[in-house]
Amino acid sequence: MDAERAISTLHQQIRVLQEEARNASPHRRNVISATLETVSQSLGDFIATAVVADPISDSVQAVEDELGQSHLLEKVQERADELQTYIEEISKVNDDISREKDEVVRMNQILAKSEERFRSMIENASDIIVLLDVQGTITYASPSVKQIGGYDPSDLVGTNVLDLAHPDDALVMIAALREALSSPRRLLRLEARIKDAAGAWHVLEITGRNLLDIESVQGIVVNARDITERREAEEALRDCDPQLRERLSEIDAMYRYAPIGLCIFDTDLRWVRLNERLAEINGLPLQEHIGRTPREIVPDVGEQAEEALRAILATGEPLLDFEMKGTTRAQPGVVRYWNERWAPIKDEEGRITGITAAAEEITERKRAEEQVKRYAENLKRSNEDLERFAYIASHDLQEPIRVMVSYAQLLARRYTGRLDPDADEYIRFIEQSGKQMQGLITDLLAYSRISSQGNEAEPTSADDVVCEAIELLQMRIEETGATIVTRDPLPIVMADPGQLRQVFQNLIGNAIKFRKPDEPPRIQITAEKHGTMWQFAVSDNGIGIEPEYLDRIFMIFQRLHGRDSYPGTGIGLTIVKRIVERHGGKIWVASEPGEGSTFYFTLPAVTTEHSSIASEIR
Ligand code: ADP
After folding, report:
1. Is 463 in the pocket of ligand 1 (CB under 6 A)?
2. Ligand 1: distance of its center to the CA of 560 in Å?
3. Residues 6 or more apart from 543 whose CB is under 8 A from it?
4. Which of 443, 556, 559 should be mutated for ligand 1, with most atoms under 8 A from CB?
5. Is 570 a pocket residue for ligand 1 (Cβ < 6 Å)?
6. Ligand 1 geometric centre to CA of 362 (Å)
7. Residue whose CA lies nearest to ligand 1 atom number 8
8. 572 C-beta closer than 6 A to ligand 1
């Protein structure tokens, strides 16, 4: 009876092995079948040794009779051991199979992911993708057939492509299919008219490849692109007159290769036509724009584009040089700027049928402008800080200096000649230096007040202002025997009268100061109109300036001579320059050393709106 159990266990193991073998990989199947063979052989041997005929119980009985029970039991024990070994072997095989199963599950997951990726690529493609069997029957159609042909993809499955083809194109299509079927991987390429769901014909550019030999595809993969519009345009072009055709192809080339974005919208702001540059700006293929709106493709500028459309539809007028800004798919997260020029397209009756738009990228320029603006603001702030500082410092220094000078003068009056000669000299030095510092402080204060305490420009008679300056310099003019001539009456200009007087006073003062030792100063003041500005010239016959110093003299504290020969603070010309520039003018100097110098400066002329006031002044 032990033998019977052993045989039945062996049978059971064989069945399990057979079951496993059915689901296993080819390699594993070989291993199992080798094991099975060994097991069945052992079983055969066993039966041959232990029994000669069925049923087993009878055979066992017969053998028991022949060899005696103890010998049979020994044999059975031997076979049972062998069986145990096989069972262990089988269990090992089982482990291997389960490991392989895990591997298969992992591979399946990877495959599923990759399939999902490819599927989403195909399902989102703008071209049509279909799979055909050998008869030309559609076995798969991508969702784009809905957008292009109005078909539901599932409705197309089972349809033969030849049923959709234009009768005139059917033969070409059959030939192309035959050609593709002639050998694996054969490419098919043709252009054919295909009917859409509404019965209209679309010209499709079709390419396909015979992948029937690939087990997972088993079909002809076909890719089709709608080129109806292109073909229609070409046909229209063929029909029109050659000169017009030439003009059109020129325009087309310009459109295609323009460095700015160009497009045409319909009156619902849907793209009808655009160039590559615009597609590049938006970061989406050109074809995918057609029929869609800016809100769908570049949502960031959607609102601005709609506003521009509304304005053009309302006025019928072009909208030129307005700015749009936003992000696009091409550079996500980067705010870009465009200068836009939009204009309506009108039919013969003057109705607006579309909009033409041009977008010039100005992001870089905009950034540079913003940077310059920031620099200018910083500069303005730091100038204001400096002016405030100069004002406070010079203002607060005035009083202590005044006290020092007064007491030095008091000392000089009371004690000169009563102390020793050195003391007299020291007191004189203190007084002199104090006065010099007083001059500096007064000039610094005047400089710091130019912007903060200047008045608005108003029509100002240059003649009157020059007269005032001459009056203030009267003593020095007389001392030096200077002559001042003005040719023709001087004009009326837009200026702060007080500051303009300061300009003439400093320039005439310098012309007297830097005179030649042996020649009385001769100063000439003239003015010429240059466009909207008056150009003044103050010339002298003084010592002149070496060419290398011509720019430096306008800088603060820059002097070319020692104080002993020509007293001064080095602020006078800086004040002049600042005043002129505050009025929107420029100042420069021309000079011949030993001959004299001419200081030129410009000031705005009186505009028409001010001319009535100007005539009153005259
Ligand atoms: P300051 O007169 O106090 O020295 P300015 O700023 O008025 O300061 O002038 C700066 C320098 O420019 C003078 O020191 C002088 O060297 C030169 N300069 C100015 N005006 C004349 C002039 N008319 N002729 C020759 N040199 C001049």
Report:
1. no
2. 7
3. 514, 515, 516, 593, 594
4. 559
5. yes
6. 46
7. 570
8. yes
CA dihedral 586, 591, 596, 598 (to 10 degrees): -20
H runs (alpha helix) in 416-456: 421-452
Closest to 519 (Cα-Cα) out of 485, 544, 542, 486: 542
Q: Which CA distances in Å does 83 have to 13, 16, 96, 253, 413? A: 10, 15, 20, 86, 141
Q: Which residue do the tokens 């041997």 mark?
A: 45
Nearest C-alpha neighbor of 538 from the set 484, 480, 481, 482: 484
Query: Is any ligand 1 atom within 6 A of the Cβ of residue 357?
Result: no
Q: Which residues pair with 601 in a beta bridge?
A: 536, 587
Amino acid at 474: Q
561 lines ligand 1 (CB under 6 A): yes
Token couple for 407: 């007491």
**C-alpha to C-alpha distance for 270 and 354, rounded to whole angstroms:** 9
Which of 476, 484, 510 most suits a substitution to test ligand 1, by most atoms within 8 Å of the C-beta? 510
Distance (Å) from CA 92 to ligand 1 centroid: 108
Instruction: Give the per-residue pLDDT at 52.
Output: 46
Q: How far is C-alpha 609 from the geometric centre of its chain's CA atoms?
A: 44
pLDDT at residue 337, rounded to an integer: 96
pTM: 0.49
Ligand 1 binding pocket includes 344 (Cβ within 6 Å) = no
- Residue nearest to ligand 1 atom 11, measured at CA: 559
Q: Does any ligand 1 atom lie closer than 6 A to the CB of residue 505?
A: no
Q: What does the pLDDT read at residue 118? A: 77
- The one-letter amino acid at 194: I
Looking at residue 259, what is its pLDDT?
A: 92
What pLDDT, on a 0 to 100 scale, did the predictor assign at position 235? 83
Q: Which of 572, 545, 544, 548 is nearest to 558 (CA)?
A: 572
Strand runs labelled E in 96-178: 128-132, 138-141
Write out residues in the chain with pLDDT < 70, as ranges. 1-7, 18, 21-22, 24, 26, 29, 33, 36, 39-40, 42-73, 76, 608-618
**pLDDT tens, position by position, 14-52:** 777 767 766 767 677 677 767 767 766 766 666 666 544
User: Which letter, b or e, does each residue of 3-26 get, where b requires 16 or more Cβ atoms within 10 Å of its Cβ?
Assistant: beebbeebeebbeebeebbeebee
CB-based contacts of 616, cutoff 8 Å, min separation 6: none
pLDDT of residue 49: 62
Cβ atoms of 327 and 336 closer than 8 Å: yes
Best residue among 508, 553, 600 to mutate for probing ligand 1, ranked by most atoms within 8 Å of CB: 553
| Beta-carbon-side half-sphere exposure of residue 59 (alpha carbons within 13 Å) | 13
Cis omega (within 30 of 0) on the bond before 55? yes
- Which residues have a Cβ under 8 Å from the Cβ of 448 and sit 6 or more positions away? 387, 388, 390, 391, 394
Q: Which parts of 259-362 fold into alpha helices (H)? A: 276-282, 294-297, 299-315
CA distances to 137, 228, 472 from 133, in Å: 5, 26, 108
pLDDT of residue 54: 47
Q: Give distance in angstroms: CA of 544 to centre of ligand 1.
A: 10
pLDDT in tens, 383-402: 888 888 888 888 888 899 99
